[in-house]
Structure formats: structure tokens, C-alpha cells
């Protein structure tokens, strides 16, 4: 490709409104352009990367035995009513009417379509297991699209769905997909981790996310420093302290704490460590038979953070987790939120394992402007239950039993689920077994955010000059950069000849034939992140050489012109 | 691919509601499944064909210098308001609102998006010409989707858009695209014709359609029997008869014709040929300054058909063409539609060239129940103008000047336009010229219906057993069909070994490892249209041979097992 016949579209300035570095660089390097909130056009350079990612994903899906199909973007609403998701799914599901006022959705995923299809097409256990994938445009009407294609509304996704007679077979395919995902991210050249994940609203039994590690990631991931253990912090178990709880040594004492509310204020006022305090958060219980929701207290050590995912899964707690209003707290406790504590608290009390391990702790006295010191469980506060409701923190023992927790940030680029029978049950998807009985199928689903991978790769691989693509997904393998071609016939001839040679060898090369200053050309190619720059200048041509600049290592070296092809030999 | 691990999904019965043979065969051969009206899931076999078509289209676009991008399916309404198409486009444009009640459309084409993009990204004449293409899902909310993917609502299209400073440059790119389209349809192995086309509502100056010839086609195409001339019948000019008009020999005579209305009835009653009569059709003129629409008469020879496209382009005729109601005709002429004729007709009269060549003709007398015989132009009917307003018919002289017209049916699979400045003007898409002036760009657009090509290929290539794919787009190059594999270890071993060998050679082969009777297997592979069946049976193995069945020619031959690979050598 010649730049003069290409849409390079690089930008010198960082565009306003691009918050994260991948979004900035995707705009500056001419990979995408914004069309409307959360909608992006993929320019030629970006599309080349996207297609390289897609190709690797497709090859590994096929290698793992999945077969490709293509389901429509637009799906009829009745399928979503059948599965129950028409009511369950929030406003991210874009619902539309056709010209006859029949309801449809723009597909955010395709569980309904594939389950209906398999239910119709597969009638015998002999045709199982089957694993069908597609690479298709999805639409999710995000309330606040942001970070470019990282959280766009229209995006490209690979989704696969497997169907099985038995859980054991599902687990085998799940493992195949797990392995295929590992190969995909290895081939992409990304630093990634599979992590144990919460199954969330999609339901099901087991789940892993695949994260590209990057400081800008939206998710916290808990690793063991001594094993392979990794889990989304939403899911990582905080173990109970191993030692027995200390004995009580202090008397329960009510202290006037005027204006003191937050844990920081309490700890400072009482001159104790936040670790020696507890905080009490008030949430709602599920509706009772009269539609009323009681208030429930969640008690954590002062320095710990509530894990909402863990909390909302508990019996007696409403899902999604809903915090009690000031009015609801006043009605139940007759004091403000900042003064609540577990001593004589007239509601159900759920205590985190670490908070339950404290002795002689400080807490709210359930009276505005007062706290207790020297509080102790059982002696002062009774009728509570102990659960894991906090986020793990660095230094916690790893739940795998080996080593301590460290926390890193990640960008979720893949997610695999053992879905179970949720959809197959709802949509009557089953087969006749060998013994002639009808049996509902069990199901797995496996997603990869193809367009998001492009952004995540940049978050992980860039410097102040631009993108540093992993070789497998660089838009071009190399760029030919001639110096002052307009003034040197020899430079022009050499560049043209090299371009022909590389093209004929099947190398994906960009020939920068613009009449631009060398500095402008170098800046563009470093921004775009082309791995190898082949710089052709008068001086080196005296020795029949060109200069090769490596974008990743920054190394420059001289190379004989007739050895350029050796750069592209598989190592 | 092994059938046991594949979704073959063939059907024995022809599904109800599938009217055309391609739709029937696409369902029966397991290429697609209907999800909702006009929405289809591409099953693995169909998707393989679709991707092969897409690949050929992409390769030829790139060879012709077009660069690939990817624009969103969902487009903001404001772009459509800017171009004017928000109001122009009918209900086929699916308009939707997002969660914030902002209006969007599902893109039926992408002129607006690309024109806005190029207007933003290209600032200098040095960056021109540029030709950008994409292969993307489109949506058109057809009022009556039918014929399967032939006229679906969601479909895959390749659309390209070129931008130029000057008409001459546009014409060069237009010719390149014309040539690329010819190469595409040649490579696809289809019998096709480029035909001169009407530019229709998309506007512009010159246009060609590419048609796959098939009796089931929806379009009539006029060819010359002696030259390359081909035009959509909408566009083919009906030349004026070359000879001078005959002299009048009869007197104008009013004849009572009670109950006689249609041309067939008139000709039978008066005992004349329909070619010696004229029919007069009443349509509306454009609105005048008071919003009123006058009635206009269109006069054709009795045996000719009105060409509405030609008529609605005439000055003095409303577009789209609108026939006058009975009430409007009564108000203007005071008689019924079946009794109108051009003698003393008190409205504007437009006469087709062939009707204007008649002498001594029969026509309505503008009085219910009466016709004239012996009518003659100028003597009896004055104040008319002559235009080309009919469809050509077989035997007409070709407008190219060589030979006579023959008419065949075609399926439109491609359409290229010289669009001109319609979009660039409306959306302010221009550059600075060499002399520093701002100049609006001129534009071409070039579409191919990728999914429709699959259906059109089947319409053109099938027999009573199923599909006869052109080799370039057959889903599989060959199928291995072992006879009674369960009972013969030798057959099984040979089949497995051959499968491994062909796979390793990169041949796209389907290994039919089902425990089915030979008849069932043959029927399936003939239905799917696999070009070569490699039949492995006990008897031929005695001679180290297999039987090769050619789907296109029907020929069977024996081949040594170790020569099978030679079948796949490029010829």
C-alpha cells in the first residue's frame, strides 16, 4: 500500500474528549473515527488490525472444533419473551419496531437465536455435542459509552454456544474453549490472565474471564503471589483469619463524638487504627409478602470495602443490592447513617469474617453523636451471622491456600460460561437420548470482544510516541520510509524496487511515498506502531544499505538491501 | 470437516412458503434458516459459500485500488437530515430511537457516513481520488420480504464510494469498477451481463446494473441480437419507426361500442389488430402553485406497455408516476377511463413514438360507449407531443443501431453509479484545489449484493437433485462418501486416510462419516451441490480405486487412490 493512495488519517493533536490512552491513540493513529456516541467507523488501518485479531480468533475456534454460522443482528422480540430476557434485560437492550410495528431487538448476544436454532435442527443425541460460533456485530445501548471502542455501543464480538447432553461433556468443551482462549491471547502477543469470574446476570455454574493486564483496566483482579490462582475481585473469597479471636479486655464505653461520621473521622477522633473499628452499612432485604423491604445491617472492618456482588447473593439481602435511604434508616434505627453500630441493633446483622474477628473495637452507638469503644462480639453484640462480604486486599491469604493476594488491574476481553439449562429449559431445546427419552440440553457460551481487544492491546503496548503493536496484529509488518525521495532518483528507485520486492513476497508493507519531511514520516509511523521502519537514504545507499528501525526495541541497524527479505523469515 | 461434527441440516421435503427454487434449495441444502420475516441465519454450509463470494469481491476491490473500511450499521439521523434522505427515503428506512430517545437509522446504504468522513479527513486535492469500500450488514425494511435471502431485510453488501475533483477522474474510476465487477462475476463462474440502468432515486448521471441471467429474475433486460448492447428494460430506448407515417385513407367515424373497454375488447369488437389501436392512460401532472394537479394523457399503441420510469421523468408529469382516479378522469373528460382517446382531448397529450406513427387508428371517443375508427394525427388530433414512453419489445430495433432486441430475465446483483455532487453538495464535502480554491467533490458509488449472489448463483445453477455450484463458490471442493463404513474396516481405513491426505493438502473436503445408507448420502451431497464425490466401496478397493462422481457433468469414473490429489491441481 502506498500512503498516497491510502487513508492514513493520522492526527498531530490529541483529540479532546478521549480519556484513555488507547482511545487517544486510536484516533491519532487513524484507526477509528467517532460517528456518534459509542459508534465508530473503522478506518483502513484500524480495520487491518481488527481483521488480524478476527482471523486468529476464527482459526483457534475452528481448531477447537467449533463450526461457524452467522445469525442476524436484528432479532424478533418473541424469542426474548420466551427466554424471559425481554423483561430481565435493562435498557441496554435496544428495542425497536419495524414498519408493521412488530417488536425486535438489536442483538447484544445470541443465546435465544442459537438455542431456538439448535432446538429445531438437532433431534438426536448422536448429533451432540455441537459448538457453533459466529463473528458478528453486536449492539448494547450503554448509558454512557466511553473509552472509544473499549465501551462502545456497536462492536464486533465472537460468540460461541455449545450444547450437550451431560454436564461432563459441557465441562470437556468448556476446557477446550479455555485452552483455545489461552492460545488466542498468546498468539495475539498479549499479557493476559484467565481469572475466576462471577456468572452475573447471565446465570450458570462456572465462569472464567480473560483479562489483558493494563493499569487502565476497569477491573481489579486478585492473584496469588505463589500460585496460578487469579480471580476477579468480585469473586475472590476473603478467608476468615486463621487465628482464634482475641479475648475482650476493655469495657464497652459510650463516647460523645460530635460531628464525627466517617471511619477516618472516627479513627482520628478516638486515636485508634481504622482496623480496630467497624463500619455498619444499611441495605434492604428482599420484599416480604406485603411488598415491604426490611433494613439489614452489613458490618465490615473499618479499612475494608464492601463486595456488593457477594452481599447481594446472600439470603436475606435484596438483589440487586440496594442501600437504605436516610428515611429508611431513621425509621428503623432512629439515628443517622454515620452513627450506626452492631451493639443492640434492632435489625438483622450480617458481619464480615474479618470484622467478626475483632475484639475491643470501636463502632457507632446507634445514637447521633455517639460511638462505643471497647465493643466485643457476643458480650455486647448478639444475634449476628458471619459471612464473606468484603473485597480481598493485597496481603490477604490467597483462597487457593498458597501465598498472599496481590491485586492488578485488567481489561476483560473474553468471558466463558457454563450456562447450564437456563435457555434450553425456557425454550424447550432437547433431544431424544439413546433410550428414547426427551432430555433438555445443557449449554456453554463463550465470548470474545474482538474490537475491544484492539483497544486493550494498545493500553498494554504503547509509549509516548504511539502504539507498539505485538507483531501478530500490527496493521503493517513494515514501512518503507524514503528520505527526500523527490530530490534523489536513487532513493526513489531503491524504494520502488524494495516495495515491489516485498509486495511480491507477500509482506504487508506501507510505502510512504508522500512528499513529507522525514520527521513527519517518522512521527506518523511511530504513532501507528509499525514494527519495522525501512529507512532509505542517500548516505547508506553508497554502501548498498538501508537503516532498519525496530519500533519495539528502538534499535537501529544497517542492513544490505538484498538482505531485507530475511527480516521477515519466520524465526 | 466430518459430518458427524457438523451441522449438515439438510431437509428431505421442500419447505412450504418457499416460492423460488433458490429459496427452496437454500433451506433444503441447509444453507440458511428463517428467523423472522426477511431475517435469515446462515448455517455453516451457507456461510462457507457467502465467505467465498465475499473473498472474491474483496480481492477484486483491492486489486482495483479500493481501500477497505467498516462503518457502523447504526447511523445517526442528523446525517440523513443533512443529505435530505431522512425525508426522501420511504418506510424501507428503519428509524429507531436509542435509550435517550435520540433518532438513528439502520443503514440501508452508507453515502451519508462516508461523505461526512471524507469531508472531515480529506482536505487537499493531493489525496484524491480515493475509493473506500466495506463489506457490511445492511437493513432495508421491505414491506414484503420474499424469495429468501434474495429480497431479505438484513443482508450482506459490498458498497464502495469514490471521491474525485473532476468528472473525468470519476469516469476513470467508474470504468475500473466496471472492469472489477466483470472480473468478480467471471471468477464467481456466473453467466452475467452488465446492463445500462436507470439511476433511480439515488440520483446521478450514469449507471450500470450487473445481472445474473436466470428465468426467475425479477428484471427484464433488453439485449441486441447483434451487439454487446444490454439495458434494463426500464431504461432501453424504444426508437421511433424509421419509415415515414402512412397517409390517412379513412374518415373519422364514431362507432357505438357498448360495454367495450379494454384494448382486447376494442380490437375484437372492431375486428382490427391491437397494433392498429391506441390506448390512452390518464396520469397526474406535478402540483401547480395552488397545489392542484392537472390530468395528462399518455397515448400508446394498443399492444405496447407503458414504461413508468420513462414517463415520470418527462416535463409535465408528476414523479412518482400517479394514475388519475375515476373521479379525476370524470371531472376532466366526463367519461370513463375505457372510452378515452386523443381526438379533441381537453388535456395535455403525450404520444409514444410508435403510436404517433399510426394512421387510420381506432381509439376512444371521449364519450362512454363510443370509439372512433379511422382516426389520424394532426387531421383529427392536434396539440400533442411525441416522446418515448413505452417498454421495448422483442423484435424492436436495438437503440445501439445494430440488430434487434431480445429480452431475457435477470437478477440484479450489482449496481454502479456516477452519483455526481448530490451528497457532497448537501454535506459540504470538498477540498482545496491546486490553486487554493474550495471545490465540492464528485462521487461514484458501487454496490454488490453479497448474500443475493448466493441465491442468484443457485437460480442459475441447479437441477432437480439440487444445487450445481460453480467451483469457485462451492461450500466444499469434494465429499468423501464411504459405502457401509461400519461393516468394512478397509473402507473405513481408506476413507480416513484419504480425509487426512486431502486435509493436509488444504482441500476443503467434507467426510461423510454418518452411519447412513448410500442413497441418503448421495442425495444429500447432490442437494448440497458438492462438485466432486469421492465414493469409496469394497469392490473398487480390490483395484486400489475409488469412484469419482462429477456433480456438474454427471460423469462417473474410476481413479487410483494415490491419484486423488491430481483432481485438485489447478488446470
Number of strands of chain A: 30
Termini separation of chain A comes to: 25 Å
Biggest chain pair interface: A-B, 52 and 52 residues
Structural class of chain A: alpha+beta
Strand content of chain A: 25-35%
Mean pLDDT of chain A: 94
- Helix content, binned percent of chain A: 10-25%
Shape of chain A: globular
Oligomer: homodimer
| Poorly predicted tracts of residues of chain A | none
**Rounded Rg of chain A:** 29 Å
The total count of helices of chain A amounts to 14
Description:
- Two copies of one chain form a homodimer.
- Chain A is α+β, with helices and mostly antiparallel strands.
- In chain A, 25% of the residues lie in helices and 29% in strands.
- The first copy, chain A, is built from 14 helices and 30 strands.
- In chain A, strand 1 (32-36) and strand 2 (39-42) form a beta hairpin.
- Chain A starts with 20 loop residues before the first helix and ends in an 11-residue tail after the last strand.
- Chains A and B meet through strand 1, strand 2, helix 2, strand 3 and strand 4 of A and strand 1, strand 2, helix 2, strand 3 and strand 4 of B.
List the SSEs and their pairings:
The structure is a homodimer of 571-residue chains.
Chain A: H1 21-28, E1 32-36, E2 39-42, H2 44-63, E3 67-68, E4 74-76, H3 77-83, H4 85-88, E5 95-97, E6 103-106, H5 111-121, E7 130-139, E8 154-164, H6 167-188, E9 192-196, E10 206-213, E11 219-224, E12 230-232, E13 253-256, H7 263-270, E14 278-287, E15 293-301, H8 308-312, H9 326-333, E16 348-352, E17 361-364, E18 370-375, E19 384-387, E20 405-420, H10 422-426, E21 430-432, E22 438-440, E23 442-449, H11 450-460, E24 462-463, E25 466-467, E26 478-482, H12 489-504, E27 509-511, H13 518-528, E28 532-536, H14 538-541, E29 545-550, E30 556-560
Parallel strand pairs in A: 3-7, 15-16, 16-19, 26-27, 26-28
Antiparallel strand pairs in A: 1-2, 4-6, 5-6, 7-8, 8-23, 9-10, 10-20, 11-12, 11-20, 13-18, 14-15, 17-18, 20-23, 21-22, 24-25, 28-29, 29-30
